[in-house]
Structure prediction request, 563 residues.
Amino acid sequence: MTDRKRQEFAKNWELEKLENGRMVLNMGPSHPAMHGIVRIELTVEGERVTGSDVEIGYLHRGFEKTCENVTYNQCVPYTDRLNYISPLINNVGYALAVEKLLGIETTPRCQYIRVIMSELSRITDHLTCLGASAMELGAFTVYFYLINARETLFRLADSVAGGRITPAYTRVGGLTRDLPADFGQKAAEAFKVLGKNMADADKLLTRNRIFYDRMHGTGAVSKEEAIALSFTGPVLRASGVPLDVRKATPYLVYDRFDFDIPVGSNGDNYDRYLVRMEELRQSVRIIEQALAQLPGGPVNYPDLGVTLPPKEEVYGNIEALISHFKLTFEGVKPPKGEIYQAVEGGNGELGFYIVSDGTGRPWRVRVRPPSFTLTAGLSKLIQGAYIADIIPTFGQINMIGGELER
Amino acid sequence: MNSYLLDAFKARFPEDTLETSSFRGDETVVIRKEALKAAALFLRDELGFDFLMDLTAVDYLPRQPRFELVCHFYSSKHNYRLRLKCPVTAEDPSAASLTPVWAGANWFEREVWDMFGIRFEGHPDLRRLLMYDGFEGHPLRKDYPLKKRQPRIAHRD
Prediction:
């Protein structure tokens, strides 16, 4: 190996000289008590963590590079794979970003359906996070309760979009299809299951001595530190900053619903758990209001330059045929420019920064994934803690490899 | 508020502000990279932009200057967003690190170094983030072929 290359290996792989019984411990990449593939190189003194280095990159698939080489609508299925337990929020965020670039606003019905589907995804995201982190602390029963609720909601989303975790539901300017006729009834049934499972989980966890002792006071971060580390979402709100993109800069029709932003005070894992529990209830509230207000009308933006015309039109109308051909082969062509669109994802602000050069393919698609900054701050959260505290902290960070590493 | 911010920038950095613009409600300031850190401090300490939401880069090959560093700031106090960009040349792909100002910039900058090969002066620990040690090239550069193969890396003890 040349000297130049050796220098590029910035981290020296030889172990440092360890004095006073310090020890280097490898946690991961595949650790039974942590979900997700991540390697934490710990330096420990007995049970105390004195230093750590988080290593990621095990799930990097080149999302951003791929998107530069396909049309705008072809990126949508890739966005499913960013955060695969709340895929619909990614779909919605991406579609909103391209629409902002185009300078269009979708139909009211489409906006309501997007809100409903985003909130469904937020619920599945929080259920997974809470269930998995409870399981890692030994509460396996809770995992089954919450995953049962999640599965019910996945089935509901499946009945709408045609996929449990890979729905690819949105298109630039609209949706792939309207809600099924019996959606309201199915949603009400699903929420009954969700309510029951959540009540069970709540009883088993919230005042559980073992759970409380492991969550309370661990992984704490102050308001100022959380802001400096660019934290967003439930972890930031647990530290007492009431920042939620849905309230701060409302997109879609979020300003028409009555819902609250739960805020914690200690910034520890237990507050994060409580914030997520409350957000589940608030999301149900939003969906119920949205279903009550749901307007009729088309779900696609009525412009042949943006959305595909209906199939009957394509076969019977030359304009529609031309538009279908051009949209399929060349894609939507936003004007030259760049925009940043943020939506509230399950773990925080999910941002899409898109640069267009005026052709049918994006020049650059950048995703600002919410778990990225959270995982970056993990070393800080576990500094000085016990090894056992890493488990609840990592669980509440809710690292999603797909969006973290893209 | 709209032009106020952009004007404040022009007044503070008359020499270094290259361009200010607004597109679809997104406000953008382009500054020279020498002033990047001063501008970030100005934003944080005087204009109340407390969040560094995103930091990334774009490769505009074959344009000159080739790269652009893009930062998105958010002010929770004023509920306002601003994009700060600075051009970076291919001959000297480096910029001042924002990690001393925002701890959250650490991994963002490591990712930009990994993906674009832009060095950050003053970064405490500039290593590749998503790719492995020994990876050749920087994949998000436009001249990195989509299907390029990488050489096998030697076994490490």
In short: Residues 7 and 132 of chain B are 44 Å apart (CA to CA). The interface with chain A takes residues 23-24, 26, 28, 50-54, 56, 58-60, 70, 72, 76, 79, 81, 83, 102-108, 115, 125-134, 139-140, 144, 146, 154, 156-157 of chain B (CB under 8 Å). Residues 2-121 of chain B form a domain with the Beta Polymerase; domain 2 fold (CATH 3.30.460.80). The beta strands of chain B are 17-23, 26-31, 51-59, 67-75, 80-88, 94-96, 119-121.
